[in-house]
Amino acid sequence: MKRWARVSSAAVLVATLLPGTAWAHMKRDESTTIRIAWWGNQEIDNRMLKVIKLFEAKYPNINVQPEYMANKDYWTKMNTEAAGGNLPDVMMMDYAYIRNYVKNNFLVDLTPYTKNGSIHVNDVNPADLQGGKVNGKLYAINIGDNAPAMLYDPQLFKKAGVPVPKPGYTWDDLAKVATQIRNKLGKQGVYGIEPYDNVNMFFPYYLRQRGLTLYNAQGTGLGYKDDSLLANFFAYWQNLIKKGVAAPPSVTQSISDPTDELIVHGKCPFLNVWSNQAVYISEAAGKNLKLLPLPTLPGGKDGLWIKASALWSATTQSKHLDADLKWIDFFTNDLQAQLTFGAEFGIPISQKVQQHLYTRLGPLYRTEYDYIQYVKKHSRPIDPPDPPVASKIRQIFSTIQQAVNYLQTTPEAAAQQFRQQAEVAFRQGS
């Protein structure tokens, strides 16, 4: 099992309804301090702190108190602060959990502030704002577009003498190519692919190709009824492990960071990722890795979707809304700020910013940008935000898939077990 978390993941949210405190407008002649919180790694933190310096230089009457931590710690702290009425003024939000924060009245409706120009979105495609909307109101501004992807190593394909799959390749094609790579380079310790053990991407994608969703529209249960779907999904990966094509858990279980993946060390040609991860994984590998869409289903639907990798929200517990709005607008539209941040959270939503970065950030950014443009033409709208119980569902799925990968259970039994445990989790709630 991979031990590192995707950028877009988060933990359990509080379900207690707390009233938002009133905010006061910032006076122009007074100094204001706002707290801004985000999750990230060391590179993200360093870049964000530089952006804050640019912001404070532009708005000398606003001081920023940064609060940053690892992804695994972020939501625990936000939950605690929400319960104590002490949320930061601006917080980084995740699509999976925005619905629960809105339900508990923690987030400011930003709709009127995009209309009056406090936050400029005039050159933003309306579709890029959808991830921040709940019930038609805008509660968060997308930081960067992201999409499921297959990262691959062109050098390893060349070394094996195997052609790189072209967009439109199928699940069968993926297994065939992975097998060819393993047969050619297996004696050098190269595997054809890594097995999948995370419910955030591949299985929802698999369902979307069949016109289904992981959760129902109400967020009260699973969105598919036929357990053979999950059984077939589990069987696909288990068969590749049995054949020695996919790396076994004994190889992958020690991976604790994306920069330590097999693809980084030239030991696997593929890695399923979120598109914004391509840059820093490529940098860790010391070579330009490329992006492919996920495999297609003949006669199926487009399974891909665009997701905000992260979003900015102003909280109702803030007393400095004017300053909060200035930060969100600055981060979204300032060219120097975006160049400094370097698209760490995906492709920025401002088209002016996109073009500014395209000629300045180099080939890795262009690879990511071009991939997002492809996905926008070959995708369907994102599924509704995950229900509050989703973190439990993810853990259940991961534990069961580990058993599948270790060959400790059959795909059929695993699929039934997942449904049984998921239904219990839904009844118990978050």
TrEMBL record:
<dbReference type="Pfam" id="PF01547">
    <property type="entry name" value="SBP_bac_1"/>
</dbReference>
<feature type="signal peptide">
    <location>
        <begin position="1"/>
        <end position="24"/>
    </location>
</feature>
<dbReference type="InterPro" id="IPR050490">
    <property type="entry name" value="Bact_solute-bd_prot1"/>
</dbReference>
<dbReference type="InterPro" id="IPR006059">
    <property type="entry name" value="SBP"/>
</dbReference>
<keyword id="KW-0732">Signal</keyword>
<protein>
    <submittedName>
        <fullName>ABC transporter substrate-binding protein</fullName>
    </submittedName>
</protein>
